[in-house]
Amino acid sequence: MVKVSLDNVKLLVDVDKEPFFKPSSTTVGDILTKDALEFIVLLHRTFNNKRKQLLENRQVVQKKLDSGSYHLDFLTETANIRNDPTWQGPIWAPGLINRSTEITGPPLRNMLINALNAPVNTYMTDFEDSASPTWNNMVYGQVNLYDAIRNQIDFDTPRKSYKLNGNVANLPTIIVRPRGWHMVEKHLYVDDEPISASIFDFGLYFYHNAKELIKLGKGPYFYLPKMEHHLEAKLWNDVFCVAQDYIGIPRGTIRATVLIETLPAAFQMEEIIYQLRQHSSGLNCGRWDYIFSTIKRLRNDPNHILPNRNQVTMTSPFMD
After folding, report:
1. Residues 6+ apart with CB under 8 A from 287
2. CA distances from 270 to 82, 257, 266 (A)
3. Is residue 72 part of a domain?
4. Which pLDDT does position 289 carry in this prediction?
5. CA of residue 180 relative to chain centroid, distance
6. Residue 232 lies inside a defined structural domain of this protein
7. How do residues 156-173 score in pLDDT, each as one tens digit?
8. Which of 60, 64, 159, 312 falls 20 to 30 Å from 49 in CA-CA distance?
């Protein structure tokens, strides 16, 4: 295993080492262990420069769009991918075969229990849009998932008791959505800069729970948000490969569904699947962020002025 130095790694908050949700004894200290920190620091140091380059590329594209010198379209340099019928993704992963009913919500403890008790196939536990990115929300979200996967999430409040209706192996499949590549976790600094929030969310969940999920007959599954280029999907794929090698599980165990919620990504859907290949579990459309992205990217185009938002429905031609 690679030796990772925690020199020049600074956590700017105190780590709570007292259990908050009794009878569970899990604390934030059980999540932010030395081993787990070494893992996410390794991922950050390995991939952060590439992450920043890709974010800079977003700005370059926006400047070209604003000036009118560039128009979004399918990429000529990846036509070979779109026109090649021989490549394919993997077979369906355990727990992802039927996704006809899927719900989502933040990783709050009571909501996680209610969602896992719901008559649905999968639950997207969301560290992104539906969760305010406060420190407590993010780290206690990890605590809640840690406990849920180990069937120890039951807890009581003065008004109500919360309890799983059975073993989590037989309940809806958990899919975690980490924060996007553009976000950072400002409470943890690595080499004098905040750690990538994507790596923070993904890394802690994966490190603590991947092998437990495999024992349950499922696996570490993710939703990937806000991507704007197929090379951002390749970056995720590279992260997945290093992560799986690090803890000693086969490549392809991780599966990821990509949310197509930006205008540039809509022109690169096949390329995104291609870059993830063995880790792909399909695509999904994020309506509201896609509309926002369209407005933002085409903000200087006089030929693209949208009506009021309530008139932009899924029957609008560019949303169909």
Report:
1. 261, 314, 319
2. 6, 13, 9
3. no
4. 85
5. 7
6. yes
7. 888 999 999 999 999 999
8. 64
Burial 55-73 (b: 16+ CB within 10 A, else e): eeebeebbeebeeeeeebe
Task: Give 292-296 contacts, CB < 8 A, sequence gap 24+.
Answer: 293/228, 293/261, 293/262, 293/263, 293/264, 294/263, 294/318
- The pTM is what? 0.95
* Number of domains forming the structure of the chain: 1
Residue in the structure block whose two tokens are 């975690």: 176
Tell me, what DSSP letter sits at residue 203? H
Residue at 315 is within a domain: no
Are residues 175 and 218 in contact, defined by beta-carbon separation less than 8 angstroms?
Answer: no
DSSP notation for 161-183:
EE--SS-GGGSPEEEEEPPPTT-
User: Using CA atoms, how far apart are residues 128 and 293, in angstroms rounded to an integer?
Assistant: 16
Query: Is residue 94 domain-resident?
Result: no
Q: Domain span at residue 166?
A: 26-67+103-285
Q: Cis peptide leading into 23, omega within 30 of 0?
A: yes
Distance (Å, rounded) from C-alpha 253 to C-alpha 221? 9
**CA 308/CA 94 separation, integer angstroms:** 42
Is residue 29 helix, strand or coil?
A: helix
Radius of gyration of the chain (CA): 20
The amino acid that residue 180 corresponds to is: G
188 has which bridge partners?
11
pLDDT tens readout for residues 100-120: 999 999 999 999 999 999 999
CATH of the domain at 124: 3.20.20.360
